[in-house]
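Lab manual, section 2.4: Encoding a predicted structure.

Procedure: take the sequence of the chain (304 residues), apply the prediction step described in section 2.3, and record the output as structure tokens. A sample record is shown.
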Amino acid sequence: MGNSYRTSADQSSGGALEQAWEAYWFLPAGSRSLAVVRVVTGILGLLLCATYGTDLSGWFGPRGWLPVDSVIAWRSSFAYSIFDACETNSHLSAAFYGLVALFVFLTIGFLTPVTSLLAALGWASLLHRGPMLAGPADDSMAILLWCLVIGSSGEHFSIDAMLHRRLGWQASRPRVRTRIAVGLLQVHAAVISLATLLAQLKGDVWWNGTAVWWIATRKPGQVIDITGFLSQSEYLCNILTHGVIAWEAFVAVGIWFTCSQKIVARAGLVVWPIVGVLTACPLWGLAMATLTIPLTQLVEETEL
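Recorded output:
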């Protein structure tokens, strides 16, 4: 009798695990929140393009600091970039502003399935042209773009949605691929938070509470100068440094539990941009906040 009871318990737990797995990855989901992710990702992509566009020819031009041959020898043999074929500054500008146009189309939701794929490929191509320049925001942008390729993000808040209504096409509906995209966003948000936490804990400055101060005073190219604010109190630096660590740990764990998931996601809309400023990566902070937008449940997913 004991053996049969254990067998029944094992079957029940196995069935529950299977149901949870099926619900997480394959339960059809609405696409309104993913459409918000699309809009924010498009705007963020334009901001990131601006960081490259200010010195595009200096980096990638015919006489730039990163010659094509040197980059090809340095990067993976599987990597390819359309920018490798740009032999003049005019060709380089045309390819780059083509990518900018794709981000504009992605933001407004025009031909979204095609635009999202081309934007993802174009962004990967830009990163492959200068992989040593890529930062955390660039990598997070790649994740966001490929999740938009997988999911259906053009059915709301878009030119596509307006055209569909005018043509009388089928209304949007919950889709499995949208659920997969949202699941991947959640997984990446947790993994990136955990990886960042573990990397930071290797440095003594994150243990003694001075990391935020050293980042603010020593990292070049600061967008926002917060040294005046931090110099007011040593305790303030300690609190902010340990607060960043605590927040990343909270996200890595709390994002998986129903009772805390919504709290983590909604708080992240404010906290992640602050963490980005404190770590001198404001666009990365915005990208991390974007990853968790579907989990905030601020967007009603009722399909029309």
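Check your result against the sample. The chain is about 70% helix and 0% strand.
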